[in-house]
Amino acid sequence: MTTPLPSQGVFHAFRLGPGENLVEGLRRAFEVAQSEAMAIVTCVGSLTEVVIRHADRPDPQTYRGRFEITSLVGTIDPNGQHLHIAIADPDGRSYGGHLMAEGSAIYTTAEIVTLALTELVFSREPCPASGYRELVVRQTRHTG
């Protein structure tokens, strides 16, 4: 475990409308915030299309229809994002996993709150333990 680093933050609230791409909207919010580290606080809404890579599967699955967003969590850094989503279909069946950047079209709305962490920088670097590029958190200034 790395040592948790403190940071002040600025909340941003916004809404994405029908047809917008969820990940592209989050990336725009990240740019507007002029942040180097952002976390998703909450998201409620609906999708007509979503691409999810499920745990321990190499290929993503595309879902088309009408789905409620029941959860969206993750981190955003200058070069990418690591987002997990849970969705529910009209019968209440849930699906979840890693939200891919392509193919996530909003149905009616996505109401989102993010937190730009003003004293942190997120990056992703190779991790010998996992074999993946994992989150690295650095402090941008002293917060004493």
Q: What sort of overall outline do the alpha carbons produce when their principal axes are compared?
A: globular
What is the domain tally?
1
> Which CATH-level-2 architecture?
2-Layer Sandwich
Count of individual beta strands: 8
Number of helices: 1
Strand content: over 45%
Low-confidence stretches: none
Task: Spell the H/E element sequence.
Answer: EHEEEEEEE
Domain PPC: 6-138
InterPro entries: PPC_dom
Protein name: DUF296 domain-containing protein
Organism: Paracoccus aurantius
What would your notes on this structure say?
The chain is mostly beta strands and 144 residues long. The chain has a single domain (11-119), classed as Hypothetical protein, similar to alpha- acetolactate decarboxylase, domain 2 (60s Ribosomal Protein L30, Chain: A, 2-Layer Sandwich), CATH 3.30.1330.80. It is built from one helix and eight strands; from the N terminus they run βαβββββββ. It has one helix at residues 22-33; strands at residues 9-16, 38-53, 61-77, 80-88, 94-99, 105-117, 120-126, 133-139. β2 and β3 form a beta hairpin. The mean pLDDT is 95. InterPro entries: PPC_dom (IPR005175). It comes from Paracoccus aurantius. It holds the Pfam family PCC.
What is the compact description of this entry?
Helix content is 8%, strand content 58%. It is built from one helix and eight strands. The mean pLDDT is 95.
